[in-house]
């Protein structure tokens, strides 16, 4: 007879060994991280290369440009929940995520074909964003399904660290290639396509579908999508998380605004701007795993809220009248820490309170709320900046953020302790 | 965690290795091939003006081209996108040169140039944030002498014929999304010192012999007369645009005519070509005779949103999307009297400045 048993044991042992290697989260999370790393290298290579913004603003009035950007963001938000529902209803999480990655890979071929036609180019960019909208929810659900619940935040930390590494490597690869082959943008697109294909191959061939925790069949689901969304939002733990995360996003400034204030305060050279982004990304990358482990050990709520507390400190420092130069590095550090303490940890918090069967949909609902709140925050801050001035706008956001963090503290305490992974 | 049969995992691993190796081979192979291709095409014997990259001009090459009438423009294609280029204007002139200066708008006269360029490093991250624009004043060596940043979107820029003054217009940021009717800022500069001579909104405006005052004036599209002290520009008040004549020394503006945008004065100072709004978002290039105030529509049938540049006293240059074959934009030439047809003057180019 074929020695099935010994094979199983061997595999189990191998799995335990790899789990020990990848800070205890298993090879599946590592491979999902690798997919994101490769895909981010691929997409950041292109965004760093295409003078897309320039091109759009030169040819379109800002209002039209804003409209196109809005359509892009809206499309991404719409497909998020739809892809979540499809993935959950048909139990095809991995297939949907793979399709989302494949979608973006195909867009690289599109880039090669459309040439310099900017209208077609912006169409390709829209398709790329739709691909991102499709894959994000299922991918996070797979990360959550690949680890025991007490390792959730660590797993998301590993994934976010690799994701950020890819985002930083992409522009470097593109710059390197353009230095080798000046002006040959097709090389950048082809190599970007290669990274994207390998990324799809990793998720399609090396990542395994997490086993369902419960054996509930897929057919007992409510037939109407809005019912599913309603039922998920009726769960007090999840509803609280959606409200809290959206409210916090509503009082969160985009990095760009923070760097702009920093630049004005310190009269930094504008050439240093990209370095600010790199600095924050680097800190985020380095700290994502440690903060995830901390969250799993001490309680995700505490780490999550502490992260937003740090953001309030960032705002306060920016409001200080005489900000010493050395403190600007402190601000970058705090900003990176804030990302490390909140982004993956929130995904872990939500994954823990969501029923496994509807996890993708739930995560998509939450990210939709956050996306809309961010859009509002950007518009609101832009308008406040214009009408009452940058410092006054920042003060209003600081007050709003502080109140929200306090309210979040009260509400999060009501969230079942099992969301923390520490309670019993 | 589910265990797929070991045989499947083995098979998947093999397929993955195949795909990964294939992709690595494709990436490295293609890069290598392009490097080879580039090396082969640098053969000077078969160098073509458009095929091979023009090297950055050496100072003596720049001086050679600057000693004869030439055109300064922005290259709009490929790796040198946005770089300032020079080309001889004599019919058979072989001279052309590329500089290291990158701009989104450029103008130049009498050894003085102005260059506006976005700082895109952060704009790509968040389209709602204020966009810094570098304003760079440069000399005949195309190296910046003075530079500073402002916020907005670069629109028009001109240098006075004697090179003493420069003017630029930006769309003021912050208004772009809150207010569909844009707000502009137009500033005059002393090119020697880089100092601002003020925003046109600080000038006195006169209309029909009376002081014209309103809480919000918008100005754009300055064009200088030969004496440099006098200039023309567009003033918008409410929904109406006016042609104003300005005087730098008196800091005064006088309303001359209605529905005139982005005027450009002929070298002999007798006529203006401007864009006339004929319906929402559609502009007709039109000639205005300053002595008689008579308008003549030019032969360009398409809507043009540009401040034209006079090639000589008979012909104008402007940018337009070039459909045949599809390119981004090209500079077109057109007689300034309503006759003729637009023709491509230079492909893949924008922001022309004629240096006679």
The oligomeric state is heterodimer
Helix content of chain A: over 70%
**What ranges of chain B have pLDDT less than 50 throughout 5 or more consecutive residues?**
42-52, 173-181
- The sequence of SSEs of chain A as H and E is HHHHHHHHHHHHHHHH
Distance between the termini of chain A: 44 Å
- The best one-word shape of chain A is globular
Largest sheet of chain A: none
- What is the N-to-C succession of helices and strands of chain B? HHEEEEEHEEEEHEEEEEEEEEEEEEEEEE
On the 0 to 100 scale, the average pLDDT of chain A is 81
According to CATH, the fold-level topology of the largest domain in chain A is Growth Hormone, Chain: A
Largest interface: A-B, 66 and 56 residues
Per CATH, the architecture of the largest domain in chain A is: Up-down Bundle
Task: Let me know the average pLDDT of chain B.
Answer: 84
* Fraction in beta strands of chain B: over 45%
Helical stretch count of chain A? Answer: 16
Features:
heterodimer; A: 424 residues; mainly alpha; Growth Hormone, Chain: A; 82% helix; globular; B: 356 residues; mainly beta; 6-stranded mixed β-sheet; 4-stranded antiparallel β-sheet; 4 helices
Write a compact overview of the structure shown.
The complex is a heterodimer of chains A (424) and B (356). With 424 residues, chain A is mainly α. The model of chain A is unreliable at 51-66 (pLDDT under 50).
């Amino acid at each position: 007879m074929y020695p099935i048993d010994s094979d199983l044991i061997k595999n189990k042992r191998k799995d335990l060994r790899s789990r020990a290697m990848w800070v205890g989260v298993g090879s599946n999370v590592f491979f999902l991280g690798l997919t994101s790393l490769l895909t981010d290298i691929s997409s950041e290579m292109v965004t760093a290369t295409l003078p897309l913004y320039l091109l759009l603003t030169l040819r379109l009035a800002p209002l039209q440009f804003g409209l196109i950007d809005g359509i892009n963001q809206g499309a991404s938000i719409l497909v998020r929940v739809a892809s979540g529902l499809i993935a959950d209803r048909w139990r095809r999480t991995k297939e949907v995520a793979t399709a989302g990655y494949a979608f973006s890979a195909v867009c690289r071929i599109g880039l090669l074909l459309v040439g310099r036609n900017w209208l077609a180019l912006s169409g390709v960019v829209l398709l790329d964003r739709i691909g991102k909208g499709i894959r994000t929810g299922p991918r996070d659900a797979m990360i959550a399904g690949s680890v025991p619940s007490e390792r959730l935040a660590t797993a998301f930390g590993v994934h976010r660290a690799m994701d950020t590494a890819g985002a930083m490597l992409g522009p470097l690869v593109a710059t390197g290639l353009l230095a080798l082959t000046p002006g040959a943008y097709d090389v950048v697109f082809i190599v970007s396509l290669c990274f994207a294909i390998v990324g799809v191959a990793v998720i399609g061939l090396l990542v395994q579908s997490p086993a369902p925790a419960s054996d509930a069949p897929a057919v007992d689901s409510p037939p109407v999508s809005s019912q599913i969304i309603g039922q998920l939002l009726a769960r007090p733990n999840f509803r609280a998380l959606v409200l809290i995360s959206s409210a916090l996003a509503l009082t969160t400034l985009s990095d760009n605004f923070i760097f702009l204030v920093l630049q004005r305060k310190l009269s930094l050279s504008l050439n240093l701007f990209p370095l600010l982004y790199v600095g924050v990304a680097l800190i985020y990358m380095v700290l994502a795993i440690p903060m995830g482990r901390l969250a799993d050990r001490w309680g995700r709520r505490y780490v999550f809220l502490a992260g937003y507390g740090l953001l309030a400190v960032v705002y306060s420092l920016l409001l200080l009248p005489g900000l010493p130069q050395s403190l600007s590095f402190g601000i970058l550090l705090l900003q990176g820490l804030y990302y490390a303490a909140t982004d993956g940890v929130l995904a872990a918090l939500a994954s823990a309170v969501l029923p496994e069967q509807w996890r993708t949909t739930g995560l998509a609902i939450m990210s939709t709320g956050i996306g809309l709140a961010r859009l509002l925050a950007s518009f609101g801050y832009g308008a406040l900046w214009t009408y009452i001035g940058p410092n006054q706008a920042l003060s209003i956001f600081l007050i709003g953020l502080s109140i929200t963090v306090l309210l979040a503290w009260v509400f999060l305490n009501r969230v079942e302790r099992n969301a923390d992974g520490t309670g019993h | 965690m589910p265990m797929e049969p070991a045989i499947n995992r083995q098979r998947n691993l093999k397929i993955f290795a195949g795909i990964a190796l294939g992709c690595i081979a494709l990436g490295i192979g293609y890069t290598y091939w392009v490097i080879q291709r580039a090396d082969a095409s640098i053969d000077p014997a078969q160098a073509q003006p458009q095929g091979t990259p023009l090297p950055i001009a050496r100072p003596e090459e720049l001086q050679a081209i600057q000693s004869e009438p030439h055109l300064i423009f922005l290259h709009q294609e490929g790796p040198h996108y946005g770089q300032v280029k020079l080309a001889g204007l004599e019919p058979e002139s072989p001279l052309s040169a590329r500089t290291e200066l990158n701009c989104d708008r450029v103008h130049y006269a009498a050894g003085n140039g102005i260059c506006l360029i976005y700082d895109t490093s952060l704009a790509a991250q968040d389209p709602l944030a204020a966009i810094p624009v570098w304003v760079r004043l440069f000399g005949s060596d195309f190296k910046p002498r003075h530079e500073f940043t402002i916020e907005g979107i670069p629109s028009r820029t001109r240098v006075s014929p004697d090179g003493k003054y420069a003017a630029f217009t930006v769309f003021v940021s912050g208004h772009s999304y809150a207010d569909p009717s844009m707000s502009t800022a137009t500033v005059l500069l002393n090119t020697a010192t880089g100092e601002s001579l003020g925003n046109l909104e600080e000038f006195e405006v006169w209309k029909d012999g009376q002081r014209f005052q309103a809480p919000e004036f918008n100005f754009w599209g300055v064009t200088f007369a030969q004496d440099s002290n006098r200039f023309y520009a567009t003033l918008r008040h409410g929904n109406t645009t006016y042609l104003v004549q300005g005087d730098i020394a008196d800091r005064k503006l006088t309303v001359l005519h209605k529905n005139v945008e982005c005027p450009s004065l002929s070298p002999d100072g007798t006529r203006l070509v401007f864009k006339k709004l004929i319906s929402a978002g559609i502009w007709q290039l039109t000639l205005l005779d300053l002595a008689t105030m008579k308008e003549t529509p030019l032969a360009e049938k398409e809507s043009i949103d540009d401040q034209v540049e006079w090639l000589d006293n008979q012909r104008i240059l402007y940018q337009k999307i070039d459909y045949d074959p599809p390119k981004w934009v090209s500079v077109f030439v057109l007689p300034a009297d309503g006759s003729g047809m637009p023709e491509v003057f230079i492909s893949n180019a924008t922001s022309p400045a004629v240096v006679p």
